[in-house]
Structure to design on (806 residues):
């Protein structure tokens, strides 16, 4: 090696591979306003669609008169259910095995349900025409409270299901019942509860919230009648699934449908499903032969597209006097709204809620979930969490604190006592999961040391004394949460969407100059995939990340994939990327052996190429090998350097974390100030530490929003009273606390690079940490579990109930 040759460290640094805080490549266009979102798309002759929506939550439609709207200059068509019926598109299947009205025919089932679709020359004419559509309604009694949905005198909501005693997931108990799902050993759990020295029972509700991405849902459908081909650009988290659904619904063969998801401004689960806006735009374009654009406004997004949570979890814990948990029993009442449009893998009507035993070694557990219809918008998506996992984490983490209060034990100590021990991994939970890896005690102790936990408790004790003496009106709360996520759906043997197994994919092509294009079945919505997938390939193939282009979202070019949600990109497509790269590397090794005239086994990998063992000066870099792949391959070998992998994960990955929140509650105003928030995450091998930190900041901010104020609220007649950002809490930089992040690294043993997902962990762990902190502020007082969201009003009421107001 001469003096000017780069050192090994320099060669490695030049790759910007895994472990490097590489700057986000996509930001070059985002921060200059050069992103390409659906609403940026302008096509010749394009028309605009807008919906007539129901003002009622439950009403019969007596008559729809579109004549005035149709006569407005600039209006090209008005669709109602009558126009969709002949092409059998007035109803569409949901991901959960139910059907959903595309346009309401006989009756409406929630406020702002789609009733007619106006197509006009521009958005303003379409909006004016919407006002001219006359709909005669006869209002019907509404069901808003899920606890009343199965009353004997409850109105029948889904008349289309009349007489159907079997649903997609078994027997229906009532006309408003959707499914019952149970798992675990009921007998053993009841026995543990009966024998318990101490037990708690608490209704822990997770309110209805909405993912509310910055960009609302949108699409442009363009039917080329000459070629018989349909192109749909849309805000799709799972473009291939949309193409398959479009083929099944429209009868157009799948190769003639092109689905393109351009840049997406946040998804958080909201952009997984198929919405009436997509179907109506496609039908409009097929009928009129011109492109149709549909873009939701904010009120439509908040009130009509997929909500999240609305889970009401009656939770029982059994324990010994010294705090050993012996059993967990949960009954969930799940409010799914008017149609079951939950976005879960087909066989999992309650998602992965059976992760509810959390991070604890609980010998007996049983869960039963009942889904019910109400007069609310459909949905039930995983808003920045794996399927129903934030609900499960909130349930167990609140229950642990309730138990700690009853036992008069410190909640962190109670956790340490029951956490699964390192030597128990892989750990089989009482509800059936095999946790792949974890080192929980180390993480918990690191978190406690970092915040000075025992000092904080001492400060809290002193503050409580000062409060009693009347020297302060502030209550200090310390919220601890230890969570386990379950991400990377999933093994195809038990996870599918509409019958398609939940694998994911990556195709890599190395060009002659050593530059690379890689295409994947996932779709970034802001998570930085263009940056991080490139880093995996850079390390695996020894090619600088800057020479690698990552492409997602075009069904014509990307290999089939199930999309991005539930933090599955890294666990599934990240693995596919590594495996595809390794296939290329194996071929590259053969080419290198041919070029160096040695046996393959005489070579070893060295950062960015192969070298002959024992002769470090005899090397072939990947750049040289790439060139040779196109002109000098071993006899009998095909030219080219590319590979594809469809990865079927053997198991989920199980990221985990320890979060601690410190807050001060003003007893007189109910205002809660978050003084400190510490988040330790373990997502296994870290691909890009800076992106991980950004993901944690974003997720914590959303968790803060949910825990401290967000709720999609309905009045008793079914009006949504939180349909704008004036009423629905959206934290800005002003309200958002400062985050402290930290990590441990426990690689996943079955993932090719040991990585687990991370994007959703902070939502899963953050919500219970905030809620536990607010509840803990009242921990010394005689007051039960305080429900979320912890807005000023609710917290003020808690202070009043605790007798703190004169
Ligand atoms: O599926 P989604 O992209 O939403 O979630 P994810 O797999 O948790 O990844 C979110 C972002 O964090 C991606 O850019 C990942 O590449 C990055 N990440 C990472 O750098 N290291 C990990 N161990 C996990 C994720």
């Amino acid at each position: 090696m001469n003096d000017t040759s780069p050192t090994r460290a320099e060669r490695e640094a030049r790759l910007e591979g895994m472990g490097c805080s590489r700057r986000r490549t996509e930001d070059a266009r985002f921060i200059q306003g050069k992103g390409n979102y659906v609403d940026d798309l302008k096509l010749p002759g394009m028309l605009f669609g807008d919906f007539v929506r129901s003002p009622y939550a439950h009403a019969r439609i007596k008559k729809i008169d579109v004549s005035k709207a149709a006569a407005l200059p600039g209006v090209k068509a008005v669709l109602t259910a009558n126009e969709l019926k002949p092409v059998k598109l007035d109803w569409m299947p949901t991901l959960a095995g139910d059907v959903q009205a595309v346009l309401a025919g006989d009756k409406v089932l929630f406020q702002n349900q789609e009733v007619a679709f106006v197509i006009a020359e521009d958005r303003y004419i379409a909006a004016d025409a919407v006002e001219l559509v006359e709909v005669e309604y006869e209002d019907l009694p509404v069901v808003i409270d899920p606890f009343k949905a199965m009353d004997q005198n409850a109105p029948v909501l889904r008349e289309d299901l009349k007489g159907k005693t079997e649903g997609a997931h078994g027997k229906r108990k009532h006309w408003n019942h959707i499914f019952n799902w149970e798992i675990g050993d009921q007998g053993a759990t009841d026995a543990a509860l009966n024998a318990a020295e101490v037990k708690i029972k608490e209704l822990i509700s997770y309110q209805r919230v909405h993912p509310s991405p910055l960009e609302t849902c949108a699409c442009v459908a363009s039917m080329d009648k000459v070629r018989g081909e349909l192109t749909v650009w849309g805000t799709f988290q799972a473009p291939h699934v949309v193409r398959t659904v479009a083929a099944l619904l429209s009868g157009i063969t799948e190769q003639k449908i092109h689905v393109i998801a351009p840049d997406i401004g946040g998804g958080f689960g909201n952009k997984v499903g198929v919405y009436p806006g997509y179907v109506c735009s496609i039908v409009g374009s097929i009928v009129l032969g011109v492109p149709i654009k549909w873009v939701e406004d904010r009120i439509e997004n908040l009130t009509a597209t997929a909500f999240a949570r609305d889970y009401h979890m009656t939770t029982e814990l059994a324990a010994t006097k010294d705090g050993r948990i012996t059993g967990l029993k949960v009954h969930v009442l799940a409010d799914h709204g008017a149609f079951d449009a939950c976005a879960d893998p087909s066989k999992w009507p309650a998602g992965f809620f059976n992760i509810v035993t959390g991070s604890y070694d609980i010998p007996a557990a049983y869960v039963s979930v009942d889904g019910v219809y109400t007069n609310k918008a459909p949905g039930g998506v995983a808003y920045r969490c794996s399927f129903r996992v934030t609900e499960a984490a909130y349930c167990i983490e609140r229950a642990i604190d309730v138990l700690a209060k009853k036992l008069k034990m410190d909640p962190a100590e109670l956790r340490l006592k029951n956490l699964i021990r390192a030597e128990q991994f892989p750990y089989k939970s009482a509800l059936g999961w095999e946790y792949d890896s974890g080192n929980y005690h180390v993480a918990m102790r690191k978190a406690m040391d970092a915040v000075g936990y025992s000092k904080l408790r001492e400060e809290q004790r002193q503050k409580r004394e000062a409060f009693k003496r009347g020297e302060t009106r502030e209550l200090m709360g310390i919220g601890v949460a230890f969570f386990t996520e379950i991400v990377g759906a999933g093994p195809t043997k038990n996870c599918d969407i509409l019958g398609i197994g939940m694998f994911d994919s990556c195709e890599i092509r190395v060009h002659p100059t050593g530059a690379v294009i890689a295409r994947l079945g996932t779709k970034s919505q802001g998570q930085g995939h263009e940056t991080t997938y490139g880093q995996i390939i850079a390390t695996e193939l020894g090619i600088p990340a800057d020479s690698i282009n990552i492409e997602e979202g075009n069904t014509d070019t990307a290999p089939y994939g199930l999309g991005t949600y539930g933090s599955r990109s890294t666990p599934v497509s990240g693995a596919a990327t590594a495996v595809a790269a390794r296939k290329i590397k194996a071929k590259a090794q053969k080419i290198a052996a041919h070029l160096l005239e040695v046996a393959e086994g005489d070579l070893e990998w060295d950062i960015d190429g192969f070298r002959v063992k024992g002769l470090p000066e005899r090397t072939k870099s990947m750049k040289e090998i790439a060139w040779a792949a196109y002109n000098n391959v071993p006899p009998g070998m095909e030219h080219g350097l590319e590979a594809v992998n469809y990865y079927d994960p053997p198991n989920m990955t199980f990221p985990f974390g320890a979060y601690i929140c410190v807050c001060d509650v003003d007893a007189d105003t109910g205002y809660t100030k978050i003084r400190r928030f510490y988040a330790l995450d373990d997502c296994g091998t870290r691909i890009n530490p800076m992106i991980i930190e950004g993901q944690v900041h974003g997720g914590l901010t959303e968790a803060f929003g949910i825990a401290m104020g967000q709720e999609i609220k309905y009045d008793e007649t079914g009006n949504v009273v939180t349909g704008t950002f004036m009423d629905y809490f959206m934290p800005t930089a002003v309200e958002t606390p400062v985050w402290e992040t930290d990590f441990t690294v426990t690689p996943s043993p079955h993932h090719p690079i040991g990585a687990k997902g991370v994007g959703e962990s902070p939502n899963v762990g953050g919500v219970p940490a905030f809620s536990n902190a607010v509840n803990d502020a009242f921990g010394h007082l005689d007051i039960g579990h305080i429900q979320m969201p912890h807005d000023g009003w609710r917290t003020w009421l808690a202070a009043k109930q605790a007798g703190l107001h004169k």
In short: The first helix runs from residue 8 to 15. Residues 527-529, 532, 564, 567-570, 683-688, 691-692, 695, 755-759 surround cytidine-5'-diphosphate (CB under 6 Å).
